[in-house]
Amino acid sequence: MKRKFLIATHSTFAQGIRNTLEMILGEQPSVSTLCAYTDGASDIESSVKKIVDSLEPDEELIIATDLFGGSVNNAFMNYISHPHIHLIAGVNLPLLFELLTNSETLPAEELIENAVSNAKEQILYCNSLLTQTITEDVF
Fold first, then answer.
1. Whole-angstrom Cα distance, residue 17 to residue 97?
2. Are 68 and 54 in contact (CB under 8 A)?
3. What digits encode the pLDDT tens for the residues 96-134?
């Protein structure tokens, strides 16, 4: 099964995060983007349908959107019953790094569960780390 990735967001966030991803990891031909509402059109459904309809039978698509419950994520929710489509809400760089660097070694479900778990651990309030360090140093 050929694995493809799609970053789909409101405005140009998808292209920006892909640019950063490729600056660090190099060119990623398996990654494409959907920057919704940037062309003046307000109908995302047709763009999503076109992407889904273009999938070949031997392709698997992992989609990362910006916001659960947002219009971009909701448009893809209509297709998650498809056995080769996987949808993740809350895209960030740690999630994409994990997905792309381990994409050859794991089944999709395991890859995604690991990536989501590890990406959550990368979201930190750094100021509280300073407080923890000071407290640990004192005792």
1. 11
2. no
3. 999 999 988 899 999 999 999 999 999 999 988 887 766
Question: Residue length, the chain?
Answer: 139
C-beta of residue 8 within 8 angstroms of C-beta of residue 65:
yes
Backbone angles phi, psi at 19, to 5 degrees: -60, -45
- DSSP-derived secondary structure for 67-116: -TTSHHHHHHHTTTTSTTEEEEES--HHHHHHHHHSTTTS-HHHHHHHHH
Phi-psi region of 21 (alpha: psi -120 to 50; beta: other; left: phi over 0): alpha
Structure tokens at 129: 């780390």
Asked if residue 67 has pLDDT above 90, the reply is: yes
Phi then psi for residue 101, to 5 deg, are -80, -15
Q: What are the angstrom distances between the C-alpha of 55 and each of 1, 2, 52?
A: 12, 10, 6
Residue 39 has what pLDDT? 79
| Alpha-carbon span 18 to 73, nearest angstrom | 18
User: Which residues 6+ apart lie within 8 Å of 77 measured at CB?
Assistant: 87
Report the distance separating Cα 59 and Cα 98, nearest Å: 20
